[in-house]
Design brief:
alpha/beta, TIM Barrel, 10 helices, NagZ_Beta-hexosaminidase, glycosidase, Beta_hexosaminidase_bac
Length: about 325
Amino acid sequence: MTAGLQGSLMVDVAGTWLTAEDRQLLRQPQVGGLIIFARNIEHPRQVRELCAAIRAIRPDLLLAVDQEGGRVQRLRQGFVRLPAMRALADNPNAEYLAEQCGWVMATEVLAVGLDLSFAPVLDLDHQRSAVVGSRAFEGDPEQAALLAGAFIRGMNSAGMAATGKHFPGHGWAEADSHVAIPNDERSLDEIRAKDLLPFARLSKRLAAVMPAHVIYPQVDPQPAGFSRYWLQDILRGELQFDGVIFSDDLSMAGAHVVGDAASRIEAALTAGCDMGLVCNDRAAAELALSAVQRLKVQPSPRIARMRGQAFANIEYKQDPRWLAALGALKDAQLID
């Protein structure tokens, strides 16, 4: 079952600088990435220094953040406060504004030395899920795909690869997978007709996908991120997606259905994830690390595709495109 497993871990750190324990963890070859949270961030210069300290230990490490806009925005002081994606849809030039948002977000994230933001959200706003809500572009799948595609175009032009989440769609299930195990009782045909559509439309433009910690009991008894059916048959097979699959945070309550952190990372990698996130629980991260070491897991070659392509431009605020993008977002009253 575990022969030839590929994958690695993405972990986190507690503070705004690295401890000796952090450095030791990051030196482990099975650790392939690090995600930063609000607690790790003071201002742009400090984030640049933290990223430089991490890269001095492991130049190859993938550095990530959640910088969607709206309420999910970790980089705040000294950064543009982007709107929630749902706010874009009501504008007559929503597609153009979505592209500008994607470019502004990616430009700022890359400028501090990070590789990527886990964005965009491709979930649909079914007016049911409080955890998704305004993070979604739209309730209509075609319109959601159009706006997310524009956002991806902006990200890509800044030099950032896009990650669509949360496959195959978290917008219907009402429970919050951070604290519960959500269920989506619909049939595969219903999900395919609506929530899967943005992933299908954008499968060739997404560099990565993050599956949902949601159970779709009519399709598979396992949450999507632990399901070979969802990841291999549907995502890789039906949608012909060949990019990176990141697990959602394996410390979330929605992942506990398969056991402890060692069981979760093994289940995620066995299902087909290329990188498993274990965050906000150092003991769990160490347990997961021991598991991947014991299983002799090899890094996935796909991960290199996620590296940021433009770290140097820290003077971006003088760029005419930057000024034009901010002007357009201000004119639409999307930012202050």
